[in-house]
DNA sequence: CATTCCTCCTGAGTGC
DNA sequence: TGCACTCAGGAGGAAT
């Protein structure tokens, strides 16, 4: 599932190829992927617009256009966004294909159809609710220890639930929440406010370290994730707990546990996480 | 306001 | 082999 490192990897790939290209056509196989405006509007009005750059907030990918509008794409669980210098490689899960005037294409595919595309003026970006209410970017200076310390203190939920809350912090999903808590040696079912000051500091560092390493590895390809060139990431080879139920903990060699926490399948080591 | 539950969707896995 | 069933999960919205 694409989380911050995967979306950032895709953004980085698109930044290399999209700026300067001009949309020529939009083919829509499943209009449900386009939330706003109506799919027909995108088909008639997007052609002629030129890409000026790319951006990302949390798991929201942004493609900026020369009329001060922006395409916003959220891949949710199984979405993929693949650029091709020629015709798109499509299957029954390809829902939208953007073509550029030079014959190149950008294909949006999504098995579970949870992924969403918006096209809005930059001035109306805050009408996308999930985007408007996002917490700080974990790798930016907006995210600092005193913020985490303050937020953790006032929450009654488990620390796993808090890490998954996009309003607390932008971009974490199920995989990295588990990996971060393992690195910080904190059990996911702990109440957020029960963490000691030292645990909060370990957590703060773990968030930034795990995300930075995952970006360096170009993301985690457990199942569906591919980068903008259709290539796999590498971080699945570095996972310590996620998807490793009953295997040995790399830190202490005890068996990894899995149970449901915050409604999500959650992986942890009862021996070295406390 | 904070939190929990339900919903969207399809493919993979399980049991019979 | 086929069928019914459960599970996986991001996030919006309803319910509590």
UniProtKB/TrEMBL annotation:
Binds 1 zinc ion per subunit. It catalyses: Hydrolysis of DNA containing ring-opened 7-methylguanine residues, releasing 2,6-diamino-4-hydroxy-5-(N-methyl)formamidopyrimidine; 2'-deoxyribonucleotide-(2'-deoxyribose 5'-phosphate)-2'-deoxyribonucleotide-DNA = a 3'-end 2'-deoxyribonucleotide-(2,3-dehydro-2,3-deoxyribose 5'-phosphate)-DNA + a 5'-end 5'-phospho-2'-deoxyribonucleoside-DNA + H(+). GO terms for biological process: base-excision repair. PROSITE patterns: FPG_CAT (PS51068), ZF_FPG_2 (PS51066). Its cofactor is Zn(2+). Residues 2-115 form the Formamidopyrimidine-DNA glycosylase catalytic domain. CDD domains: EcFpg-like_N (cd08966). Monomer. NCBIfam families: fpg, PRK01103.1. Its EC number is 3.2.2.23, 4.2.99.18. Residues 240-274 form the FPG-type domain. The gene is mutM. One of its GO terms (molecular function) is double-stranded DNA binding. It comes from Dethiobacter alkaliphilus AHT 1. InterPro entries: FPG_cat, FPG_Glyclase, FPG_N, H2TH_FPG, Ribosomal_uS13-like_H2TH, Znf_DNA_glyclase/AP_lyase, Znf_FPG/IleRS. This is Formamidopyrimidine-DNA glycosylase. The active site is at residues 2-3, 59, 264. Keywords: DNA damage, DNA repair, DNA-binding, Glycosidase, Hydrolase, Lyase, Metal-binding, Multifunctional enzyme, Zinc, Zinc-finger.
């Amino acid at each position: 599932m694409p989380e911050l490192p995967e979306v950032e990897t895709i953004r980085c790939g698109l930044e290399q190829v999209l700026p300067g290209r001009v949309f020529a056509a939009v083919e829509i196989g499943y209009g449900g992927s386009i939330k706003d405006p109506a799919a027909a509007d995108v088909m008639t009005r997007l052609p002629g617009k030129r890409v000026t750059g790319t951006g990302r907030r949390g798991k929201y990918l942004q493609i900026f256009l020369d009329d001060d509008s922006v395409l916003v794409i959220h891949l949710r669980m199984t979405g993929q966004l693949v650029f091709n210098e020629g015709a798109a490689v499509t299957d029954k899960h390809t829902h939208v294909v953007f073509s550029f005037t030079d014959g190149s294409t950008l294909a949006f595919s999504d098995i579970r159809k949870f992924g969403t595309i918006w096209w809005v003026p930059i001035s109306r970006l805050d009408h996308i609710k999930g985007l408007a209410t996002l917490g700080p970017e974990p790798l930016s200076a907006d995210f600092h220890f005193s913020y985490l310390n303050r937020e953790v203190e006032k929450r009654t939920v488990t620390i796993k639930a808090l890490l998954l809350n996009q309003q607390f912090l932008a971009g974490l999903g199920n995989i990295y929440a588990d990996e971060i808590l393992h690195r910080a040696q904190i059990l996911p079912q702990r109440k957020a406010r029960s963490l000691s000051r030292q645990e909060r500091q370990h957590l703060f560092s773990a968030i930034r370290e795990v995300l930075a390493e995952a970006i360096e590895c170009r993301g985690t390809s457990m199942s569906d994730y591919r980068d903008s060139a259709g290539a796999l990431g590498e971080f699945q080879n570095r996972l310590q707990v996620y998807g490793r139920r009953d295997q040995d903990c790399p830190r202490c060699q005890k068996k990894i546990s899995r149970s449901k926490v915050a409604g999500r399948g959650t992986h942890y080591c009862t021996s070295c996480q406390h």
